[in-house]
Amino acid sequence: MASGVSVDPQVEEHFKAIKIGHRYRYIVFHIVNDSTITTERIVEESSYEDFVDSLPRNDCRYIIYDYAYTLEDGGKREKLLFIHWAPDVCKIRCKMIYASSKDAIKHKLRGVVEIQANDISEVAEDCIRDRLKAAGASGDK
Amino acid sequence: MLTLEKIFASLPKTERGKAIVLGGDPKGENFLYVNGNSVFIRSLKDPFTKCDVYTQHSTATGVAKYSPSGFYIASGDASGKVRIWDTTQAEHVLKNEFHVLGGAIRDLAWTSDNQRLIIVGEGREKFGVAILADSGASVGEIIGHSKAINSVDFKPQRPFRAVTASEDFVVCFYEGPPFKFKKQNDEHTNFVNVVRYAPSGELFASAGSTGRILLHEGKTSEYLGEIGDPAHKGGIYSLAFSPNSDRLLSVSGDKTARLWNVQDKSLIGEWSFGNTINDMQVSCLWCNDYVITVSLDGSLNFLDLANPGKPTEVIGGHSKPITALDRSADGRTLVTGSTDASLVIWDSASGRMRRVTGLAHKNQIQALAVDASGTVYSVAMDDTLQVSSSADAAVRADSPAPRKLDSQPVDASAAADLVAIACRQHLVLLRSPGAVVATVAASALTCCALSPDGATLAVGGADAKAPIRLLSTPQLAEIQSVAEHQAEVTALAYSPDGANLAAGFADRYVRVYSVANGYGLANTEEWCFHTARVNCLAWTHDSKYLATGSLDCSIIVWSLDSPRKRIVAKNAHPMSQITKLTWIDANHLVSTGQDSNIKVWNVSFD
Amino acid sequence: MTSGGNMYGGDEVGAIVLDVGSHTIRAGFAGEDMPKTDLPAYVGSCPAISAAAVESAQPVDGADSGAAKQQQPPRLYHGTNQISVPRPGMEIQALCKDGMIEDWDLFESTMDYLYKHELQCASEEHPLIASEANWNTKAKREKLCELAFEKYRVPAFFICKQAVLACFANGKATGLVLDCGASGTHAVPVFDGYVVSHGIMRSPLGGDFLVRQLDNYLRQQHKLEPVPVYRVASKTRVEEGGLPVWEAKKLPQGITQSYHNLMVKNLLQDVASTVLQCIDEPYDQATAETMPTVPYEFPHGYNMDFGYQRFRLTEALFDPANFLPESPGSSMLSVPHCLRTSVERCDVEIRQSLYSSIVVVGGTSLLKGFTDRLQRDLTARAAATLRLKLLASTSSGERRFASWIGGSILGSLGTFQQMWFSKQEYEESGKSFIEKKCP
Q1: Closest CA to A128 of A82, A59, A60
Q2: SS3 per-residue string spanning B137-205
Q3: What is the ipTM of this complex?
Q4: Lowest mean pLDDT segment, chosen from B186-190, B366-370, B508-512, C328-332
Q5: Over pLDDT 70: what percentage of chain B?
Q6: Which of B486, B532, B553 sits opposite C390 (nearest CB)?
Q7: At C251, which helix (H) or strand (E)?
Q8: Domain containing A28: what range?
Q9: How far apart are CA B348 and CA B370, in angstroms?
Q10: CATH number attached to the domain at C16-160+406-437
Q11: Listed range (B229-243, B482-496, C424-438) with the worst mean pLDDT
């Protein structure tokens, strides 16, 4: 079920750049005028902590984050996270629009691990690690 | 990191008119009892602070017994499931779980070869089963009863026999394995609560509501005679043989425990526990040199056989959820209150406790506060406020009389020489030791906190839209309000240096407001890492760290200086919400749970 | 996406949002925060002849009345105010069964009433977005669609599952929606905006069930016949527990049993919402007895203090096996068990996501202590590593109208205008095209 919100073509371009070219650390997408999903900003280098700090506390966003981590056995991995950021404290209208438009943007992004986060605790690194472990166990989603 | 240092464990669950069963460790180190969904493995040598708690059952536990080897424990619960688990390691690895009965399990017995279990209790058609501990396969039929079976025991030597005692007034006798019904003994004329074999196997004793102890021959179940005439004036709930089978202990609703010589059936000694209902005796255990009885209020009485009369040691505490907690100024004494209207004073180092006497409260203690002089102010759901002394563990003759409050109290806070009581519809301010200074109407309050200098009182309410109000003392006039939140305020606490006010909320958030900054938020971090309602908060003495406890069973310690760092202790009280917290010194945090346990944690901040 | 010429253009005129439930029907305008009206999902139906007889106050001749009866349709009454008036021969009839629209004639009359009296607008000027039961049948969706276009000539139509709207409104595209309403409690898993149908678990334990429990308790153990307001002319203050002293109102003849039953049900709902509470641990008689009592004064003056029953009556939601008097050892699932079973029926990969996004909605969930007890019971049976999070809005409006609010926002979105099933598309492709437009 979708809201009809459309996706700006630059979204796909930027996604390719991060997926294939690994040119950025993360990209933040937002919905403009209640009608289109576009790129809000691109950050080339950032620590995960700084990224979490930069998230708006009262507004929803979609983020693609190129996450690099080390496994317990020392192996290095890199996964693309698609984060649907919808803080509980947001206005209901904002939550509704982002939730019902998620499908539209998700279809343009292949090979990502999806994270639904409704507050800081769900986007915290330890939570992400658990999620990656679970996704790794049963194959990418 | 939070490491558990001590546990002032919950008492056994008791119920009026019902016998409970204790388990004894063949190695003589621990004894077992149950409460809530847990099995308590309490140390016999140091029962005050050492207890291991196993919380893996999904419904209320009914009984737990060691296997004769001491390597496993079998525990049964209210849904009819039995779990067999390892005792040697802390993880208590589960060996097996079987669903054996259609109702609550009341007792179980291991065969002496550690291979088989007989499990009895309630059910629809089946009241008992005999199974192999390894596979759950049936090794006989426990039939012959028409009502729930209360007790079961097994003859420890060959030829093997088993006995069961039931609400249908009958004691059944089985031969096996495989266990076959052999004989029905109907000498009892009322509920039979307990049946136990003497360790020598020569005879077994049974007792029940009639107050009579009857003896039967161990191999044939032939009726041998009666001990006492009758043994007790009230119903007998439990029996325990001495390890060499020469003596028998019986405990009764007549509030006594009696020691008998089995050979000549004479009375050797008697212990009297008092004359209130709480002194009724509902269980007993004889484990090597230790003899323990349980009173209806859950107290564990350690008896000295050489000195009949009074128990040598009484371990008290709580058997119901702990709802209130505070400490003395020096942290050496803890005061806890529970849903059963009891207040207990604890020594935080040794775990020794005394119950406060003379209280007028009739139901759940809602909150309590201890002032600088050690006076305890407790408020209960029956709208009463009472003043007692923590040093004496009693309501003193010179204390103010219990007071009836105008609306139901919800929280209490003490600072300087003032005590604030928040009630649903009003606030009361008292000056030590109990004179009312001011009262003001309020609406839907849930919590309050006095600043350390006593000059400001912060109050929070149930209405998500109502702000946290700051009132001046003693007039209780509003100075300011703080409204950064969107949910019910559940707890408030000022840091000891008075610089910050912390608030916990029903929507899992924890926020800290800086006093100097006009009560603006002290940091922009979102402290929302609990997954359910925040119940309580406590600041460390140096005001740098805040511990919070939640409905999600975990404790989190937050750092004011490094707001992004936190220490999370998940399942600090397994399957139980954390009800209250307090720091007794720079590194020790005390938590209380709905599981009636008090835990003392050693906290290392790096 | 769809053929441009047939798309609904999207005027400035607002859409109407309709959320149909077994207990009430919520309707209002898209873009608003709350529904304009919350109508009971019942209609009062008077056979025309009785209405005429009352109005004319004359005896009606036998032969004529027969003919008149056949010609005149029954007089229908909608809305709480109208239904509450005691009228001779007025039967109360429900619109829905099992959460879905059952009586289409009555439903139509309700829609007429809504447009004319509550919303006060012309149906052909406003697109209509409707919510549907999470297990709605294809036939019923198409029928509603047909009704909307044929009778009401709406310019555009859309239909969406209630759980999806509620889930989105809480900021989630994936979650377990636990809807505790009058007709029962339903656990509906939603994954990426779609209901996982094979995961739906339905339990009859809901508001109506609690009302029945309360009714049994009052009649059997208190020997109290609940007397609704419509029968009371005046009452005198009596002591708590004392025999009520009241004067019966002079009522017209022919008040139906169904009307009386509805009035009693409304009364008991009020008692339930005032008095009932969920205890935070498995019920223990001794503990419940120490809790403070809550008084209730019935319309006919009977004054009663509710003690441990306040907690005992709600315990059946969490432990039906032991707390349902009629069927001991019943195999009915408790609310937490219903929720767990629903999650367990879904793919193992999405279960953790469902458990960490449980959305609680519905009026019955507003019972004091309900969400805390639910949290406790779920935790008790969950693995220690499971991340469990319950989301229950503190606003009672958001809890009761979650689906309506979701529909309201959707219907007001500019971009949504291209998603509507337009009149032209309907005329071209027929009602079965709705499956494509509203998946």
Answers
A1: A82
A2: CEEEECCCCCCCEEEEEECCCCCCEEEEEECCCCEEEEECCCEEEEEEECCCCCCEEEEEECCCCCEEE
A3: 0.89
A4: C328-332
A5: 100
A6: B532
A7: none
A8: 6-137
A9: 15
A10: 3.30.420.40
A11: C424-438
Mean predicted confidence (pLDDT) in B19-41: 95
Q: Given a cut of 90, is residue B201 above it in pLDDT?
A: yes
Residue numbers of the domain that contains B192: 12-315
Equal fold, C16-160+406-437 vs C171-205+334-392: yes
Among all chains, which residue has been given the structure tokens 């690895």?
Answer: B93
Architecture, CATH, for domain C171-205+334-392: 2-Layer Sandwich (3.30)
**Residue of C183, C213, C199, C176 whose CA lies nearest to C320:** C213
Identify the CATH class of C207-317: alpha beta
The answer, for B484 touching chain A at a CB cutoff of 8 Å, is no
Cis peptide before B433 (omega within 30 of 0): yes
Domain boundary among B283, B315, B347: B315
* pLDDT band (50, 70, 90) for residue B502: very high
Give the CATH number for residue B282. Answer: 2.130.10.10
Kindly indicate the confidence band of residue A40, based on its pLDDT and cuts at 50, 70 and 90: very high
In this prediction, residue C11 carries a pLDDT of 53
Whether the per-residue pLDDT at A56 is higher than 90: the answer is yes
Q: Could you report the per-residue pLDDT of B81-99, keeping only the tens digit for each?
A: 999 999 999 899 999 999 9
Provide block-wise average pLDDT over 10 residues at a time, chain C (439 residues).
45 84 92 92 82 50 47 85 90 90 93 93 93 93 93 93 93 94 93 93 92 92 88 85 84 89 93 93 88 90 90 92 67 89 93 94 93 93 86 89 93 85 89 84
Which residues, at least 6 apart from B236, have a Cβ–Cβ distance to it below 8 Å?
B193, B194, B207, B208, B209, B211, B212, B213, B250, B251, B252, B253
What tokens appear for B260 in the block? 């008998």
Q: In what order do the strands lie in the sheet with B333-338?
A: B322-327, B333-338, B343-347, B353-355
Say what the pLDDT of residue A89 is. 86
CB contact under 8 A, C290 and B363: yes
CA C201 – CA B191 distance, rounded (Å): 43
Q: Which residues of A touch B486 (CB under 8 A)?
A: 89
Say yes or no for a CB contact (<8 Å) between A57 and B526: yes
Cβ–Cβ below 8 Å for C394 and B553: no
Q: State pLDDT tens for residues B545-594.
A: 999 999 999 999 999 999 989 999 999 999 999 999 999 999 999 999 99
Contacts (Cβ under 8 Å, ≥6 apart) of B129: B100, B101, B118, B119, B120, B138, B142
Distance CA C231, CA C114 (A): 29
How many domains are there within chain A? 1
**Residue-averaged pLDDT of chain C:** 87
Phi-psi region of A68 (alpha: psi -120 to 50; beta: other; left: phi over 0): beta
Residue B360 located in a structural domain = no
Q: With left for phi above 0 and alpha for psi between -120 and 50, is residue C88 left, alpha or beta?
A: beta
A63 in a domain, yes or no?
yes
CATH number at residue A39: 3.40.20.10
CB contact (8 A) between residue C375 and residue B486: no
Residue A46 falls within a domain, yes or no?
Answer: yes
B320, B408, B570: residue with CB nearest C292: B408
Mean pLDDT of B393-415: 90
Distance (Å) of CA C21 to CA C108, C194, C209, C212, C261? 15, 20, 16, 19, 19
- The encoded tokens of residue B192 equal 């039979």
Q: Are B475 and B467 in contact (CB under 8 A)?
A: no
Neighbours of chain A (3+ CB pairs under 8 A): B, C
Cβ–Cβ gap C394/B487 under 8 Å: yes
Candidates B297, B465, B530, B577: best to mutate against C (most CBs of C within 10 A) is: B577
